[in-house]
């Protein structure tokens, strides 16, 4: 089963926000930059996550987004169910009704597979995705050594005059 980019981006947003210090707000632009995702796509994802009460959004000069719940309270299966538009794996009516529908077992088997897939995801929370927070921060450039490196690199250093 393949998840949509929309759901992928949703999980990335939640992971990014979960590795921030509690209460720290970040911008959609910041997340888009770190994941190299088009900002206009991310705006839609963040809006949806906000409507589902996964995020707190604040407008204005000091605005931004942060998690509305603790990472341990954000079930991966729930997020995926809420962000995916459809879990229909096969459509037996397109392009025309399939003649073997009355005896075909494929829809039932695929339904079982979908339930098993979601059942595994239900065992995990966003907190489970953060087992290596320092490595995540380093790879995303949001703290730790890499963040300090970026701060140092952005400061102009002059050589002493001889």
User: Considering DSSP H and I runs of 4 or more, what fraction of the residues is helical?
Assistant: 40-55%
Rg, Cα atoms, Å: 21 Å
CATH top level is: Mainly Alpha
CATH topology: Arc Repressor Mutant, subunit A
Number of strands: 2
Unreliable runs, pLDDT <50, ≥5 residues? 144-162
- Give the number of helices: 7
Task: Sum up the structure in keywords.
5% strand, 48% helix, 7 helices, 162 residues, 2 strands, Arc Repressor Mutant, subunit A, mainly alpha, two-stranded antiparallel sheet, single chain, disordered C terminus
Architecture overview:
With 162 residues, this protein is mainly alpha-helical. It has a single domain, classed as Winged helix-like DNA-binding domain superfamily/Winged helix DNA-binding domain (Arc Repressor Mutant, subunit A, Orthogonal Bundle), CATH 1.10.10. Helix content is 48%, strand content 5%. It has a two-stranded antiparallel ribbon. A hairpin with a 5-residue loop joins strand 1 and strand 2. The longest helix is centred in the last third of the chain and has 16 residues, at 106-121.
What is this structure, in a nutshell?
This protein has helices at 5-18, 28-35, 39-51, 76-83, 106-121, 133-140, 144-154, and strands at residues 55-58, 64-67. By secondary structure, the chain is mainly alpha-helical. It has one domain (5-131): Arc Repressor Mutant, subunit A, CATH 1.10.10.
